[in-house]
Amino acid sequence: MSPRLSFLFSIGLLCCLLTGGCNQEPADINKLMAAVGTGNVDDVRRELDKGFDKDRLNALDGKDVPLTPLHLAAMDGHTQVVALLLDRGVKPDLRLGYKQAEGATPLIMAAGSGHTDTVVLLLSRGADPNATMNDPPGLLNHGTSALDLACQSGHLDMANALLNAGANINGGGGITPLQMAASAGQVESVKFLISRGARVTIMDPGFARQQGHPEIAAILLKSLDPVSAVAAKRLMGNSH
């Protein structure tokens, strides 16, 4: 080897040793997902440092993958891992292209799993409170939002945080958060939504009763004006 090549080789070897690049394992999405699943921030950081920059992670947006690292962290309520991924430049509204959860954002995944702290973090980092996912065939097919899921599960602190962040209390069309709460028998969610100004229609009391929740039907009926209440009772009478 010539003196010049020997010198360059020595410099390259020294840089490699100083940076740890000689022994660094290649980036592996499976190992990253496994680390995210444990919720260990140090392990996740170690895997990210192997070559997962924001462009590589954001390239998963809309792809036909069951979960991305951010979706998994949000779904499992690993709030610190979510924060780390966001700090690394992952988009807060990264969407899935997987057919069983098409369009789902990390916020929706966190809401569906009942992780209020994670929802609050995502909202503080710019997540869209009105994002919706496409429901699988055979379900309601109205575009489920984080607020829908919070109200359906009775997570009032989460619902309150979403509304304060600008979530549409009446939804974006189709089944409303109020109707989702009513169909699930969530009395407190129904009361909460009404107190926050949710729109109650003449169809809602009958809908609640058809779902087997007469107590909620009565609450909804009382929230209507007298004329609308009469119309709702007539509809309920015709639903037998």
Write structural notes for this entry.
This protein is mainly α and 240 residues long. The chain has a domain at 26-102: Serine Threonine Protein Phosphatase 5, Tetratricopeptide repeat (Alpha Horseshoe). It contains 15 helices and 2 strands. The chain has helices spanning 3-19, 29-38, 41-48, 54-58, 69-76, 79-87, 106-112, 116-124, 146-153, 156-164, 177-183, 187-195, 204-210, 214-222, 226-237; strands at residues 132-133, 144-145. A two-stranded antiparallel ribbon has the order 1-2. The protein starts with a helix and ends with a helix.
Secondary structure elements and pairings:
Elements: H1 3-19, H2 29-38, H3 41-48, H4 54-58, H5 69-76, H6 79-87, H7 106-112, H8 116-124, E1 132-133, E2 144-145, H9 146-153, H10 156-164, H11 177-183, H12 187-195, H13 204-210, H14 214-222, H15 226-237
Antiparallel strand pairs: 1-2
Give a concise summary.
This protein is mostly helical and 240 residues long.
Morphology: elongated
Query: What is the beta-strand fraction?
Result: under 5%
Mean pLDDT: 88
H-E order: HHHHHHHHEEHHHHHHH
Key traits:
Serine Threonine Protein Phosphatase 5, Tetratricopeptide repeat, mainly alpha, elongated, 240 residues, two-stranded antiparallel sheet, 2 strands, 2% strand
